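$ fold --in a.seq
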Amino acid sequence: QDAADEATLRQFDLDSRFGPCSGITRLERWERAVELGLDPPAEVPQLVRRHGTNSLFNKDLF
């Protein structure tokens, strides 16, 4: 399951529609995308929170 979760999060990292991901956590990037009305994938915060916001699952790919 961890590998599938990481693959989903990597896809989010690589999707330029949601803005740059360098220097920002995945959760922060997702929240920014929501605020901008960009409709990011709903599963991203669920996956991050499942693994812990201080885990590698909240770090960007880069």
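$ fold --in b.seq
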Amino acid sequence: MPLLAALLLLLSIPCLATVTIDSEHAGPINLSSATRYLEDNSNSLNLQDILALPGSQWQAYGDNTFSMGYSTSTWWLTFNLANTSPEEVRHLLEVG
């Protein structure tokens, strides 16, 4: 749950493509084109550290599925979503 909270807070990082969602779209949404990532190979960064980083530290990820293979690193992901419908939209986030 803390990872999800961190991910949601990171949505404010600039320079990201925005994925538009609405209540009429019920299927999977590919976020690859809008996802940026950061590898913390020291596993020492916390949420405050991540939020303080400039947008230039993040790398674009354009592949179909985020998969970096086996790694002991911590991977931080961010993306922007825009709900264009007047009602709440719920989706399940699946990474891997």
